[in-house]
Amino acid sequence: MKLIVIPPIRAPFSYRSKDEGQFMIKEILKNLERKGQMVGVEYDVDDGWERNTRILARDEEFFTYLSAGFLDRVKQYSEGGKYDAIVSNSSIDPAFFAVKQICKIPISCAMHAAAHMASLIGERFSIIELTDAMAIIDRRKIESYGLGHKLASVRPIGFNDTEVADLNYKYRKEERRNVPECRNVIDAMVAQGIAAIEKERADTLLIGCPAIQLYEDEVREGLDKAGYSEVPLLIEVAAGVEMAKAMVNMKIKQAARAYPSDELKTKPEFR
């Protein structure tokens, strides 16, 4: 099985090398390899949409703007015949309905997959996210997936994606837990996770943006120390990969009637 993983945007180092721009998603995938989740799976990582300048915002305007570039990449890979499935690794599932419509092979969107997995194992899940603007996008997407009744909360930690990505790039994985700036991110994630458990009665937690998915192990440790070892912690990219694998193994893809184009042959009588 061969997957292509597409980030919506090159990690915000547009003037660095191609390899450096992919480092976060590659690190997440390497973590999945260490846990045995990538046995029998080959994968490539796309560059993502690129701008000449650094972009700090992660709001509706930004995500709407990047959707066109993301769609182009999905179309390219779905028609290329090289891959069995596509994984979108973004926490906000850009152009979700459009990519489901145009993609000719199975495509898995990370937050969509993680939300459904959380709904299978629990009744109330919360998402740990970076900013308030991203949190409201998450909530709207989850409600459009029909899972709003199971979303207990989306809790932002108040750090910018570019800011955290810079830290992740500057320090190696084994160093980050001892770096004060990285420790602040970890502590904020643990605090928001505990708040979701205690205040919103969340039984399952999701980590949103890939920039903070790199801190899965540290957050797990923090939750365990606080007495919440029974609360599952889901990584959205991991869920996206597992969903793609399942679709390929079951020989299924997104239903044309659910995401129709004008070329749909068997149109229903009403919607």
Task: Looking at this protein, list some descriptive labels.
single chain, alpha/beta, Rossmann fold, four-stranded parallel beta sheet, 8 strands, 49% helix, globular
Question: What are the SSEs and their pairings?
Answer:
Elements: E1 2-6, H1 18-21, H2 23-34, E2 42-45, H3 60-80, E3 85-88, H4 96-102, E4 107-109, H5 110-121, E5 125-129, H6 132-144, E6 151-156, H7 161-170, H8 173-176, H9 180-199, E7 204-207, H10 210-213, H11 216-225, E8 233-235, H12 236-250
Parallel strand pairs: 1-2, 1-3, 3-4, 5-6, 5-7, 7-8
Helix pairs in contact: 5-12, 9-11
Question: What does this 3D model show about the protein?
Answer:
Helix content is 49%, strand content 13%. With 271 residues, it is of the alpha/beta class. The protein has a single domain, classed as Rossmann fold. The strands form two sheets. The chain has a four-stranded parallel beta sheet, sandwiched between helices. About 3% of the residues have low confidence.
Gist of the model:
By secondary structure, the chain is α/β, with parallel strands linked by helices.
